[in-house]
Write a structure and sequence with these properties.
phosphatase activity; Rossmann fold; globular; Haloacid dehalogenase; HAD-like_sf; alpha/beta
């Protein structure tokens, strides 16, 4: 099968924690040998786009200048397009704040804000939750970087962004606008990076509820790799149907 591009997830697909998944280089090499452009596409908000490339190099993953789309960068791009003059309160990682500032928006450090952005936040405590609650007022827009339930690490799963987004949602009784996977905004941004028609692209990732569902919603073929969050038995129990199910990224060669 020939594809205009492949969108490749990172956590659980290329790396797990701070270690490369052994078959990742073989899979990436197969895509390059088949002349399929690669876009790395991740809900991870802990790294900026240039930091992703450094991390790939550091763990021994061959990187050849491919574009990177992160949920943090995508969130900043969404706000720059839809709320460019907003004061933005962030309950999330420093990376999210930096991307929002780089997009020309103003960060709100206290009081009410026009927009509240929430995502994974390993610094959260009662005071931080209270400050976020008090940032809401009439008309405040609630934005989530993503709603990943968990993130795969070397020693097992850890809570994902949804743990923090749901805490805020429960306090304010307001559903967020979600930017990251499985929303198709991420697919559209990735396709634009390589000038491809999203419908002719392949989404490769380890999570049925984010990677595969986004691809399904965007009208793409999808490949679930069983090296991270989701396993083959999860597919049997789910209404989400990947086009392909493989053990790891190295098996993608058989799909091309």
């Amino acid at each position: 099968m020939s594809y205009a591009a492949a969108f490749v997830d990172l956590d659980g697909t290329v790396w797990r924690g701070r270690s490369a998944i052994p078959a990742a280089n073989a899979g990436l090499r197969a895509l390059r040998d088949a002349a399929v452009p690669i876009v790395f596409l991740t809900n991870n908000t802990g790294v900026r786009r240039d930091e992703v490339t450094s991390r790939l190099d550091a763990i021994g993953i061959d990187y050849e200048g491919e574009p990177v789309v992160t949920a943090a960068w995508a969130t900043a791009a969404y706000l720059a397009e839809h709320r460019p003059d907003a004061d933005v309160h962030v309950m999330g990682q420093d990376t999210v704040e930096a991307e929002i500032e780089d997009a020309g928006l103003t960060l709100s450090t206290e009081g009410r804000a026009d927009v509240v952005v929430a995502g994974y936040d390993d610094r959260v405590d009662f005071a931080r939750l209270t400050g976020t609650l008090r940032a809401f007022g009439p008309g405040t827009v609630f934005v989530a970087t993503n709603r990943d339930r968990t993130t795969p690490e070397e020693d097992g799963p850890v809570p994902g962004a949804n743990a923090f987004v749901s805490a805020i949602e429960g306090m304010v009784d307001q559903e967020p606008v979600v930017v990251g996977k499985p929303e198709t905004r991420m697919a559209d941004l990735a396709a634009a990076e390589v000038g491809a028609d999203v419908h002719n692209c392949l989404m490769i990732g380890d999570n049925l509820e984010t990677d595969v569902l986004m691809g399904e919603r965007a009208g793409m073929d999808t490949a679930l790799v069983c090296s991270g969050v989701s396993a083959r038995e999860d597919v049997a129990a789910s209404e989400i149907e990947p086009t392909y199910v493989v053990d790891d990224l190295g098996d993608v060669a058989s799909l091309l």
